[in-house]
Each structure stands twice: as C-alpha cells, then as structure tokens.
Amino acid sequence: MRWIVRILAAVVLLFAAAFWALFLSERPPLTTDPETLAGDGSRIDYCDLPSLDGSGKLAADIPKGNTPGCGYAHFPLPILAECTEPLAEGAADIRGLWIGVEGGHVGHVERVEQCGRRVVVTSSGIIHDSGPNRTAGENTNDTEGAVLFTIGDREYCPRTSAAMVWNEGVLEFHVFGWGPVVVRRYLDGEQLVWEYADGSTTRMDRLCALPADQRIPKPRGRRLRLFGGR
Q: Residue 4's pLDDT band (boundaries 50, 70, 90)?
C-alpha cells in the first residue's frame, strides 16, 4: 500500500510541476519590434514576395519575434520585412499567406516568412520565430495562444518552445529543440501541407490578401474565469 501512495504522490508532483511550467512560470520577454507589432499586416500584397538577393539585412540582424501575452491584438507587419538573406541550403520556399482548403483545419490562415535559416509563422494571434536573430535564442520561445483560465484580468495560456529544422524539404518542429517532431510543413505541388500535433493534415492554398475576418484574432481556449475579473 505504501508504494501505491508513493507512486500517486510522484504523479501528483509531476503534474503540478508540468502545470507550473506550462501556465505559471515566468512569461518570455516580448522581443518583437514594437513598430512591427503595431503595424497593419492586412494591407500587404502577399503574392509580391521580397527578393532574397543578399542586398539587405541578414536574419541575425533582426530582433526575434514572439507572441505578446497570449495573442496579438491585430495581424502585425512581417517580422522579416527588411531581411534579404538567401534561403539556407535544403530549405524549400514556403513563404507567403496560406489558407486551409481541405483536411482538418479548413479556413485556417497563416503567414510564413523565411530568410536564411530563419522561419516565422504568424497565425491566430501567435508568432512563432525560429532561427538566428539579434535578441534571443534560436528556438521559438513564446505561448500557444489558447487561454485555459483567467485570474482577474490576466490570461493564462501554455508556454511553448520548438526548433524548426529542414529535413529533405520538410519543415519539422521539434519540441524544445531536441524533442520529437510535432508539426510538419511541406510543399505538394502548388499547395502547402500542414501536419499538426492534433493528428490532422491540412492542405493550404496561397492567398494574396489577408481576409478581413483574420485581421483581429478570435479568442481561443476554454477561458475559465477564476477569482473574479470581467
């Protein structure tokens, strides 16, 4: 009986530690350039992709982008707008604005930026930025965006960290940079295929303009209200 109690206690401690790390640990510092975050990314022609001819900044010259709090207030300007470093060897060019048209997440819209070894995915209130930058480490270091609960006026969403690594033309997201692959993106003809951690596969077509309903992200998560708040 005593060993059962010990096992249960260990499980409870592990769960508590994981919960603290995901929801209660210190939030990552906001490193996204304020002007980029304040700008309006809905006014851009995303079929007019920048030339990666090496004439401008390198990926490492530009501050890292990440999610403010649990989500941005409106679709921001591109993080890598001034970067012209040619893509790294082995990287497919998946830059642009994409919308899910078939599979698990029809209607999902995301922007993919690339420059050198750096990749930035902006969608649904979140900014995931992986690769060399001026202000932080190479792994993404931000939040997932889905709010589980609120305390007063503060929102609590899970921390995330991943590395984006190219593997034979497939962009793979490794948890914590060294863990298993949980997300994959790759081209199939003219479509971008997105394999997500929930087991879904979504085929996406290219867009030139951000749909009007995507400028302001929709709230996500259960948003359980604890201890007051509006």
A: confident
Residue 15, amino acid: F
Q: How far apart are CA 32 and CA 193, in angstroms?
A: 27
The tally of domains found in the chain comes to 1
Sequence-distant (6+) residues with CB within 8 A of 130 are: 118, 119, 120, 138, 139, 140, 162, 163, 164
Q: Within a domain: residue 202?
A: yes
Domain ranges, residue 101: 30-226
CA-nearest of 75, 217, 76, 45 to 147 is: 217
pLDDT, tens only, 43-77:
999 999 999 999 999 999 999 999 999 999 999 99
DSSP secondary structure string, 172-202? EEEETTTS-EEEEEEEETTEEEEE-TTS-EE
- Provide the whole-model pTM: 0.92
Residue 145, phi-psi category: left (phi > 0), alpha (psi -120 to 50), beta (remainder): left
Q: Please give the Cα distance from 125 to 74 (Å, whole number).
A: 8
Q: Would residue 175 count as lying in a domain?
A: yes
Alpha carbon 74 to chain centroid distance?
15
Residue 138 lies in a domain: yes
Q: Is residue 106 part of a domain?
A: yes
109-161 pLDDT per residue, tens: 999 999 999 999 999 999 999 999 999 889 998 888 899 999 988 899 998 88
Check residue 50 and give left, alpha or beta (phi > 0: left; psi -120 to 50: alpha): beta
On the 0-12 / 13-18 / 19+ scale of CB atoms within 10 A, 217 is middle
